[in-house]
Amino acid sequence: ETGTWGNHFMSQQGHYRSLGVDSTRSEIVRLEKLTENDIKLLRRLCNEADTPDEESGSLKITEVINVIHSYFGLLEELHDLMAERITSTLDKHKLQQHKSNLAEFRTDLQQLERRISEHLRRNQLIGKRLPDKGGEMSARRERNSILACEDVAGAAIQQALATQEALARQQDTIFRIQNSTDTVNQRFPLIGTLVDMISRKKQRNDIIMAVWVGLLLWLFVYFVFL
Length: 226
Fold this sequence. Notes:
- The chain has 226 residues and is mainly α.
- It is built from six helices and no strands.
- It starts with 6 loop residues before the first helix and ends with a helix.
C-alpha cells in the first residue's frame, strides 16, 4: 500500500531542517525504498487492470502517482540539505548516487504515466468502435500484447541506461586517477624522472642478461655437440 501523504509531507519538510548528515541520509534511503515500492505497486496496477479507465482503478492509480510525486519533492529537499552540510568526497559521491536513483525513479514514473495514457486512449477507441463483446475481447488481447512488448522494450531501455551510468562512473574514476597522477608529477617532477631512470636501467639489464644467456647456450652447444 502507499504511504500516507498530504499534510504529513508538509510537516516532514519542516522536520528535516533539524536532522544531521547521517539522519538525513537515512531518511533519503527510507524514502527511496518507499518510492521504489510505490512504483512497483503502480506497475502492478497497470498490469492487472483490464480497463484502467474504470472509476475505482483510476482513483487508485491517481493516488499512487500523487504519493510518488510527493516523495520526489521530499527527496529533492533532502538532497539540497545534504549538499549544504557534507564536506568529504565520499559523502559527495553518495549524494550523487542518491540523485541518480531519483532520476531513475522519474524515468520509471514517466514511462508508466505514458502507458496509462495509452490505456485510456485505447479504451476510448474500444468503446467507440467495438461495442460487441467479441470485438472488445479481441481488442483487449491486442492491447495486452502491445503492452507486453512495451514492458520488454522498457526493461531493455532501463538496462541500457544502467549500463550507460556504470560506464560514466568508470570514466569519471579513470579521469580522477589521471588527474591525481598528473598532479603528483607536477608537484614532484623528480619522481617521474626517477621512474624513467629505473625503467631504462631495468631494460638495459634485461638486454645484458639476454645476451649472456644466449652466449652461454651457444658455448654449451658448441662444446657438447661439436
